[in-house]
Write a structure and sequence with these properties.
single chain; mainly beta; 6-stranded mixed beta sheet; 6 helices; 10% helix; 38% strand
Length: 324
């Protein structure tokens, strides 16, 4: 059913989501404008006015949010192409980093396979530094991907997708911390052979951004952009099963968390079991740790999600699910 403007206004999804310019008090060292807070809409208050780049509209992050569909069938041979690019990337309004990315996006492309599939990953280094790609999971150690690939070089990795679950992939060239901090990471969903129950599926990857190059992150965001899901809530169907593939790539934080307001979720740590580990409303993840969350939102409205490290939430990592 198509919602009219009045319905969206009742949900609070139109207008008032950005920072109010009249309340700006100056700039922090990142160069990102930070508002004072008084009199601003709730969305701006919770994210301290961190806004996404003006050029990004409500569908700009769909390729990072919506995973490819599950494909049921016999074992497949899948070909995957990954290349490294380097260049500027605006991660919030007025904040740009020198990004090193897989296929021009941070996080990298969502890869999906079924347990037992044979994967051939063709890798090219189009950047200005040695790079490579390393997959988590179980595979032949000779295909582990830690050897540096020189500038202009290429490599081919052959691995079997196993076990089922949610697996990170990232550059493992030294220093690994620097390569990952610039954006060289992504996730691979490996489905169990018979799949999981039908659900509205989403991917959420938490990142930190060192805007001023001082070795610490000043901004944080989901799927590569700070403040994006405060400005553009994620629309989900009310009363239907929601499945979140959740990953943490904040390498400069000892741990982060994900907290869902007004509802709880079934937690599948690493996604390697079909029976939930627990039901909760908050999960804590170390660097490159991941989980699968399942829940339903029974009432129309907006449900906040954010790290429970409030410093992260207030610097761009607050978002909303809009159950419609």
């Amino acid at each position: 059913m198509r919602l009219g403007r009045r319905a969206w206004l009742q949900l609070g999804l139109v207008g008032g989501l950005g920072a109010a310019g009249g309340f700006l008090f100056g700039r922090r060292k990142t160069g990102v404008v930070m508002p004072a807070g008084h009199g601003m809409p709730a969305d701006s208050l919770y994210s301290q006015g961190i806004e996404p780049p003006e050029a990004l509209g409500p569908l700009a992050l769909e390729r990072s949010l919506i995973p490819p569909p599950f494909v049921r069938g016999p074992r497949l041979v899948r070909s995957i192409e990954l290349h490294v690019e380097e260049g500027p990337l605006e991660v919030a309004k007025g904040a740009t980093i020198n990004a090193w990315s897989f296929n021009g996006q941070v996080p990298g492309p969502i890869i999906r396979a079924t347990e037992g599939d044979d994967l051939t990953i063709s890798f090219r280094n189009l950047g200005a530094h040695p790079h490579n790609v390393h997959f988590h999971g179980r595979h032949d150690v000779n295909q582990d991907g830690w050897e540096p690939v020189p500038v202009g070089g290429s490599a081919t990795y052959r691995i079997r997708a196993e076990p089922f679950g949610l697996h990170p992939y990232h550059c493992h060239a030294l220093p690994v911390s620097e390569h990952m901090a610039h954006g060289l990471y992504g996730v691979m969903i490996v489905d169990p052979p018979d799949g999981r129950p039908p659900a509205h599926e989403l991917v959420l990857v938490l990142s930190g951004f060192d805007v001023d190059g001082d070795g610490s992150d000043e901004l944080y965001g989901w799927n590569g952009v700070a403040g994006y899901y405060a400005r553009y809530p994620i629309k989900v169907p009310v009363g239907k099963l929601i499945r979140i593939y959740l990953a943490n790539f904040c390498g400069m934080e000892p741990s982060v968390s994900f907290h869902l307001h007004a509802e709880s979720f079934r937690l599948f740590r690493s996604g390697t079991r079909l029976v939930p580990d627990e039901e909760t409303d908050t999960v804590t993840l170390g660097p490159s740790e991941r989980a699968i969350l399942e829940f339903t939102l029974p009432v129309r409205g907006r449900y906040m999600f954010q790290p429970h490290q409030h410093r992260l939430a207030e610097r761009g990592a607050t978002g909303w699910f809009a159950a419609v």
